[in-house]
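Internal ticket #5521
Category: modeling
Description: The requester needs a full-assembly model to guide mutagenesis choices. All entity lines are attached below as received. Residue total reported by intake: 646.
Assigned to: D.W.
Attached entities:
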Amino acid sequence: MVAFSPGRFRSPGCRQRPSDSSGNAGHRRDVHDAVTGATPEGDLAIESRGLTKRFGKQTAVNSIDLAVPRGSVFGFLGPNGSGKTTTIRMLLALTQATSGTVSVLGHSMPARLHHVLPRVGALVEGPAFYPFLSGAANLRRLDTADRHASSNTRGARVQFALERVGLTHAADKKVHAYSLGMKQRLGIANALLLPRDLLVLDEPTNGLDPQGTREVRTLVRSLAAEGTTVFVSSHLLAEVDQICTHAAVMSAGSIVAQGTLAALRQGGDTRVRVRTPDTAGAVRVLTHLGLEPFLAPDDRADRDVVAPLRGSQWQPEAIVTALVAGGVRIRGFLVEEPSLEERFVALTGEGFDVVQ
Amino acid sequence: MSSSDVSVPNSAEVPVRGRGGWDLLGSELAVLFRRRRTWAMLVAIALIPILLAVAVRLSSSTLNPGEGPPFLDRVTQNGLFVGFTAMVVAIPLFLPLTIGVVAGDTIAGEAGLGTLRYLLVAPAGRVRLLLVKYVGAAVFCLVATLTLTVSGALIGAALFPVGPVTLLSGDTISVAESLLRSLLVAAYVTVSLLGLAMIGLFISTLTDVPVGAMAATVVVSVVAQILDVIPQLSWLHPWLFSHYWLGFADLLRQPLDLGSFGQNAIVQACYLAVFGALAYSRFVTKDILS
């Protein structure tokens, strides 16, 4: 296993922004802004229309319209089996869509895959390598597959990619001796062999320890800061919550919600939570204010009183004042933003009863 | 998808270019010949003439002409026959077995490891990948037959007298010319195996389980040879890829008869065309789900 050291995923200080340099631009032709929030409608890194994939009678992906703005960090959410990986396979021209169209970086896929894929780094459904080759030899091998990848810089690029994911010490080890986390890192290194305009990362933190997960987050942020669009599929909501600017939620092959993370959250309610021994009093005061309080479902003796704000004109501090004036002893008061998890569960179903 | 795979990318749009994609072939050969499995098969091939020569050397009884595999009775008189005898022994089963392993592994092996999706996303190009994989398998055919030939010549020279070789036609040729003929036999056997290698490549595009593709390829070669000995199917025989496998005896006559070489090449070319087209049409539209 890897010895823990801070910053195994190095921040890529030596890489130039395309807008900063004319000579080092390499593959990059599109000078695009870092996350600006206001992305023009036409400037999408990934756009699909009515994208559908059927396997026999089963519809794995059902007419989805994906819109991933350039420069965004886009979270692609959904329970297992909701069609995320099938969608990614269609985006990368690994499988053919049954119907519908996809365009990636402004080119239609799969017709223009030779123009698009050199600019796309991908980690699809887990890392896969030749177990009998070393980590560095694996990266060199996969790099030769891209006929635009210069052989002169191959060694240096492989070194740099390994350094970025903190695998330099294991570069000459055979991959069959790698742990799952190390393979995952090597998979990310493979996606970073060339400067990319788009990174498609399918469950990038799978198998990583908490440190590794944090480092992937840092890496994704630094790539996004350089202007790379990052498309991350995940079912880890905390992860998406922390790094993404946009997200789409899939359920049973359809997109059930899509947009900026802030817009996605707005589907839920901001709530106030009052911790008090005087629950009856709290409910009375809150009801008097026009709210609809209820006791939080909890086993403890002193249960919290929760009230959704739902556009109420009351400011939280005014609610506290009213509670105190009403003789309610307050042990804790919290304004709760709706969590992505609640939205996610509301959209895709509870527990194992996810829509199939 | 199929039309896009063969299109040459516009160099104005993609300014940085590698060496026209030859790197992938180099890498394919490096991976193939760095595998222990490949070396094990080549060592086994090299052992065939060695076992044969040692057995003949150690046995005191002299063989009557015609007993045992062809040429075996001549080995004691001239070591240069070890290679020919070993080729006759190896071609019905052992060489097809190794070709089956290599050709069956081409696409299915990458699919089984999951590296196929990363090669295609790189993007390797499906047609280019098929070509590189086939060339890799063909190079293995050549290396395998050369290994057998060289090993046979060396062990023959070490254990038996070497001198001018009396051909099947009764003529005698010099040692140097007999070595040339050995290389010609190696070339003949290599060509003989090219059709089977393409069949293996096609089968390999059908599955994600490399062992299945390997076994199926070997089975195909065995079935072809069984069909070849059923007299009722004589109309089919000239079209079996294995029909001319043992025809290299014609190369041991004076004057040199290249007729069977040509017929063999034509049959193999037919198999290349048919199974190459099948592999192409299957692979360019295949959903990569591995």
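Resolution: model delivered.
Comment from assignee: Chain B touches chain A through 41 residues (CB under 8 Å).
Ticket closed.
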